[in-house]
Design a protein that fits this description.
This protein is an alpha/beta fold and 214 residues long. Helices cover 35% and strands 21% of the residues. The strands form 2 sheets. The chain has an 8-stranded mixed sheet with strand order 3-2-1-4-5-6-9-10, sandwiched between helices. α2 runs parallel beside α3 and α2 crosses α7.
Length: 214
């Protein structure tokens, strides 16, 4: 069991025990996010991912070399159980289920992100991350807040405008940016659990350095 004495009072104990959390996409951002949330003591988390770990995932995701070929969600759940003693649930595929609670969307497709938001119950919050090499964005939307939902749609971007590519067409990512965005997303979830105001949009850049609200 985790010794959370140095986090006492930051997140209400009731939230740690009862708050339902979903992480859809356990890749660059999602894997680091899952590990971060587990070490804050959040217990009821479901990890969603159908992909297998590939060798090129190791540098920017929270997996080990000996996990290549394993399902990402199950492998991450194993890492978390070993590190914290907490058992997280896993699912391979999201099939338009309506989700409640804190829903982190870290999937690759913008169309899928849109579908997740539109399927959500009015209770809960939708937190979405978008990552480039040197920059990223975090959107935090209450599904029952019309203005926030319209703000999200107004900042819609195609997949080709989010991903940065190498000369040969390979998507470029780096773990340092993924960890920065996972921390910002985690804090948005923590603010929500504490009953505090969340920023509907954050942009972060490391070249030059900048973090500000959209």
């Amino acid at each position: 069991m985790l010794d959370l004495i140095r986090q006492t009072g930051i997140i209400p104990t009731q939230q740690l025990v009862k708050q339902k959390v979903h992480i859809l996409g356990v890749g660059a951002v999602g894997s680091h996010l899952a590990l971060t949330l587990s070490k804050t003591g959040i217990l009821d988390v479901t990890l969603w991912d159908m992909d297998k770990i590939e060798s090129h995932n190791i540098p920017n995701q929270a997996f080990d070399n000996d996990m290549v070929g394993q399902n990402k969600a199950r492998a991450m759940a194993g890492i978390i159980e070993k590190a914290t003693g907490t058992k997280y649930k896993t699912r391979r595929r999201w099939n338009d289920q309506s989700l409640k609670g804190v829903v982190f969307s870290c999937v690759d497709s913008m169309e899928t992100r849109k579908a997740i938001l539109e399927s959500m119950d009015s209770e809960g919050i939708f937190i979405e991350t978008r990552m480039g090499v040197y920059h990223g964005e975090v959107y935090t939307i209450h599904p029952n807040d019309k203005e926030e939902v319209e703000f999200w749609h107004g900042n819609w971007k195609g997949d080709d405008l989010i991903e940065e590519k190498s000369a040969c067409g390979t998507s470029l990512t780096i773990g340092a940016t993924a960890q920065l965005l996972s921390s910002l997303a985690a804090w948005q979830g923590i603010h929500y659990m504490r009953g505090e105001k969340t920023a509907r949009g954050l942009t972060a850049c490391v070249n030059p350095y900048l973090i500000q609200e959209l």
